[in-house]
Amino acid sequence: MTIMILFFGFLFGALLVYARVNKYNVISGMATLEDLTVAKVIAVTIGVGMIILNIEIGAGMAVYHVKPFLLGGIILGGLIFGTGMAILGYCPGTSVVSLGEGSLDALVGIIGGLFGGLVFTLVLPGIQSVLGPDLGKISLYTLTGESSVLFFILVFIIGILFIWAGFWLNKREKKKNMEWLYAGAGLAILNGIVFLSLTTNRPIGASTAFPYIADKLAGLTDNDYFRKIETPGHWEMIFLAGALVAGFVFSMAKKEFKLKILHDRWIKYKGESEHKRILWAFVGGFIVIFGARMAGGCTSGHIISGGMQIAVSSLVFAVFVFAGLLITGKLFYTKKAD
């Protein structure tokens, strides 16, 4: 099973590298609306994925893993996650892939994320009331009264609309490359395979690995939260190890591996101070993981995997993530550096 998970993680990392959506320049570019690649890939992944996944589930080959709609956690966690994503320029999964390519700011963000996961474990008992109320595991399937005919009609309509949104965004950008389309479809197929009962019977995810590793290192394992995340956290740790290898292998193969802290878009807006980038990368990493744990997932484990299940919690989370991302992008990347 470990080898299978590593392989899935490697494929995940390879697809991110192919579309370059793990790059700081691409993700921070999304925050300033100068690069829409991330949104295009996510739209296609969700659109293609929801059709594939719901056919699998309808055929009895997989089951739903819908995240509960924790109202406070989804809204506040989404805004916080989006804020951290804009500042850091990575998601939990993409930071690991970029580290494999030599991005040292991604390493700083990962360290910040480990601290964010540890702090979340410590403060969780005191903020439980803020995360609620729990509105349950709501999805299109439950909202249609489990009517298979109406449900599948809506699945295909909504799926096509998501795919169309990707093409519409691409038309707005006036770009001719199609890597975003192939990577989005590839991620959808990969997630569909990971969901299968014959493989791992779970969705792809990344952020749970951070509190899992941090709590293990700190010896903070005798609590209800660690027991809850122990199994998925271990799975995601192995998965991300595969993604890390993919980042390294493909950057070496393309002769693009390079140890670096500063990236073009950071220099453009924030200047050439490495200390400044290190500070903000740590802060961004901390915020990203803390927000992800409040909401119960991240870009891959909540927005994409949940979007494929047409889970209300995940779709609402996505709205607030992009709100936090764009608001922070406008405020944080205010002017070009002198």
List the uncertain runs: none
Shape: globular
Tell me the major beta sheet: none
SSE series: HHHHHHHHHHHHHHH
Number of structural units classed as domains: 1
The class by helix and strand makeup works out as mainly alpha
Strand-residue proportion: under 5%
Please count the beta strands (DSSP E, at least 2 residues each).
0
Q: State the helix count.
A: 15
How far apart the termini lie comes to 52 Å
Fraction of residues in helices? over 70%
What is the averaged pLDDT score? 96
Instruction: Tell me the Rg in angstroms.
Output: 19 Å
Helices and strands in order:
Layout: H1 2-19, H2 24-31, H3 37-58, H4 71-88, H5 92-100, H6 104-131, H7 140-143, H8 148-173, H9 179-195, H10 209-218, H11 224-253, H12 264-270, H13 274-295, H14 299-308, H15 312-332
Primary descriptors:
338 residues, mainly alpha, single chain
Structure at a glance:
This protein has helices at residues 2-19, 24-31, 37-58, 71-88, 92-100, 104-131, 140-143, 148-173, 179-195, 209-218, 224-253, 264-270, 274-295, 299-308, 312-332. The chain is mainly alpha-helical.
What does the model show?
The protein is mainly alpha-helical. It has one domain (2-332). It has 15 helices and no strands. The chain has helices spanning 2-19, 24-31, 37-58, 71-88, 92-100, 104-131, 140-143, 148-173, 179-195, 209-218, 224-253, 264-270, 274-295, 299-308, 312-332. Helix 3 runs antiparallel to helix 8, helix 4 runs antiparallel to helix 6 and helix 14 (299-308) crosses helix 15. The protein is globular, with a radius of gyration of 19 Å. The mean pLDDT is 96.
